[in-house]
Amino acid sequence: MAEYIDKDLLLKDVGDKLSPIYEAFRRVINSQPIADVAMKHGKWLDNVEYVTTLAGVKMRCVVGYKCSLCGRTEIKKEPYCNCGAKMDLE
């Protein structure tokens, strides 16, 4: 997963340490494209299967979890889905 930084904080921090080459560095940083970053939020839904026991009783079994946004299934609840969604909704 990509990581994003605060450009203004970076330039301030670097400017304090690299004053001789700061202007060139600032131009390079400012010429970079701006990422369109929007956090998706989702939740893990129970991935349910129904099984019939030897006695003929139908039982509901949770066999994992499914992402509410993309439908991807996982064995355990992770903080993020593979689609990039933060799984913090209840």
Question: Can you tell me about this structure?
Answer:
By secondary structure, the protein is an alpha+beta fold. It folds into 2 domains: 1-37, no CATH class; 40-90, no CATH class. The protein is built from 2 helices and 3 strands. The chain has helices at 7-17, 22-30, and strands spanning 44-52, 58-67, 73-74. Strands 1-2-3 form a 3-stranded antiparallel sheet, with no helix packed on it. Helix 1 runs antiparallel to helix 2 (22-30). The longest helix is centred in the first third of the chain and has 11 residues, at 7-17. The relative contact order is 0.17.
Offer a concise description of the structure.
This protein has 90 residues and is of the alpha+beta class. It is built from two helices and three strands, in the order H-H-E-E-E.
List keywords for this structure.
2 helices, single chain, 2 domains, 3 strands, 90 residues, 3-stranded antiparallel beta sheet
Q: Structurally, how many domains make up the residues?
A: 2
Q: Give start-end ranges of low-pLDDT stretches.
A: none
The neighbouring-strand order within the major sheet is 1-2-3
Shape: rod-shaped
- What is the succession of H and E elements? HHEEE
State mean pLDDT (0 to 100 scale): 87
Q: How much helicity do the residues have?
A: 10-25%
Give the tally of β-strands.
Answer: 3
Taking all Cα atoms into account, the compactness measure Rg is 23 Å
The tally of helices reads 2
- Give the termini separation: 23 Å
